[in-house]
Design goal:
Rossmann fold, eight-stranded mixed beta sheet, 8 helices, 8 strands
């Protein structure tokens, strides 16, 4: 049986409980074997100077994941030259982890990101490389997801309510998972830290200690 591997990418600047809880819920909902957290090395939509160094973001992720038995880190994007395009990352992971018969990839995507998917580089190829997992927020229905798929990917995607996914005769399915919305963002944490305000309870204690020790996001570093 093929290994079922979830992929959660992002800048993680910094990682917070929203990331971790979403990963935990998808892990359980789709019975995944593990989830790989992949920090972006050079995100195409942000200049390098706008985010913390890769090593800082990697270390915060390492501390956040801790000893979770099915959460793992991957530095794959730091080993790929150029911008961190998701399509290139997935192709590389397929080479590293095994072919379609050996591993099935599940790409976790927030609803906001899914709505902007058509702006991603070669985004249609994503549906041949991994099953997308859309993290649906309250107020967003599967009808909206279906409309976006029909317009930007293929009108052949059909909703299967019994399995909570959109199926396609040739492309990989798109799963929909309703996750707990914690109302935490990395932008919020950076802003609070820069203002000298408390960021307690927004991220794991080890991450907060690292931020304080390294003086990340302080007003003097902006």
């Amino acid at each position: 049986m093929a290994s079922r591997v979830g992929i959660l990418g992002g800048t993680f600047d910094p990682v917070h409980y929203g990331h971790l809880r979403a990963a935990e819920e998808v892990l359980e909902a789709l019975c995944l074997d593990r989830i790989l957290f992949i920090p972006a090395a050079s995100p195409p939509h942000k200049p390098r100077t706008a985010i913390q160094d890769f090593q800082h973001r990697w270390e915060m992720l390492r501390l956040a994941v801790g000893d979770h038995p099915r959460f793992e880190l991957s530095d794959v994007e730091s080993r790929i030259a150029g911008k961190s395009y998701t399509v290139v990352t997935l192709r590389t992971l397929r080479e590293l982890l095994g072919g379609e018969g050996e591993v099935h990839l599940y790409l976790l995507v927030g609803m906001d990101s899914f709505q902007e998917l058509s702006t991603w580089w070669r985004y249609r190829e994503l549906f041949q490389l991994a099953s997308l997992v859309v993290l649906r927020r309250p107020g967003h229905s599967e009808e909206l997801i279906g409309e976006l798929l029909a317009v930007h990917v293929s009108p052949l995607y059909a909703w299967r309510g019994d399995a909570c996914l959109f199926a396609h005769p040739r492309l990989l399915p798109v799963h929909v998972v309703s996750n707990t919305v914690l109302g935490i963002s990395s932008t919020q944490i950076r802003w609070l830290a820069a203002q000298g305000k408390s960021i307690r309870y927004l991220a794991p204690r080890e991450v907060l200690r690292y931020i304080a020790r390294e003086k990340l996001y302080s007003a003097s570093s902006w």
